[in-house]
What does this fold into?
Amino acid sequence: MYSFGYVALIGRANAGKSSLVNALVGQKVAIVTNRPQTTRDNILGIVNGENYQVVLVDTPGVHRSKNKLDKTMMKNVRSAISGVDLILYLADGSKALDEEEMRYYQNLPQPKVLIKTKVDKKNLQSFKADFEVSVLSGQGLDQLKTYIIDQMPKSKVKNFVFDQDYYTDKSVRFIIGEEIRQNALNLLSDEIPHGMAVVIERFEEKPELVVIEAMVVVEKERHKAIVIGKGGKTIKQIGQNSRSFAEELLGKKVLLKIFVKVVDDWRNKENNLKQFGY
Ligand SMILES: Nc1nc2c(ncn2[C@@H]2O[C@H](COP(=O)(O)OP(=O)(O)OP(=O)(O)O)[C@@H](O)[C@H]2O)c(=O)[nH]1
Ligand SMILES: [Mg+2]
It folds into this structure.
């Protein structure tokens, strides 16, 4: 028998959804930062085995919408919830599970399981969950994976949707854009992150190298100065970190140029959202 199905990972921002997707897939599919609302799109992570294929749907953290980008992100969450074969609801084990969150969980459709994440942490809360996991120590990951595969619909014929060589639905172009966003988020102060987007403007594969031009979009002139840094120090660091990742991913030398552009209030403008891929 073959198992194939879709699994959505839902939870508040920073709960550890993208980290768990990467751990289960065994590849870096989605970027991870310590800032809330890192993930904006639904990103598929594909777990392949001889007789199973599980498609994990990573989603943006559940939060209240303040602008059009937030609304798009929450629409992504709702679309992930509908039509999957299993929902994993992730709750940070070091944070209390409050009533509002419990209610949200209870209102999710079945089948679903509650997963306590980051159980390697010292300040663990005592709430009960169906699974306890840590991507840092690896605790609970094998058990969870076995459970997920077991829950997937069964078929006598191999009905996998994706080629088994694939581990995500996203292009290398998208993944490299996200890597740049991650490296920028990690280097920048708290005020900028939510207003930043990365657009790959040029991606040209030559025999010996790949030429990539990326545009970092921010909302304010003063943010632009911060992204660039003193004497271009910050943007240079973002570029270096991202280039080595891209070279490894592509197996080729990469020439990476990053520009910074100010687009006022882009998170509320339909045409900008579209242009930046949201
Ligand atoms: N100690 C510890 N930290 C973890 C673990 N899993 C994730 N983290 C950290 O938690 C933070 C958030 O992780 P993400 O995977 O980006 O969380 P997310 O739910 O995808 O967040 P959003 O995309 O913003 O909704 C990062 O700093 C991770 O390194 C874990 O098992 N143990
Ligand atoms: Mg995420």
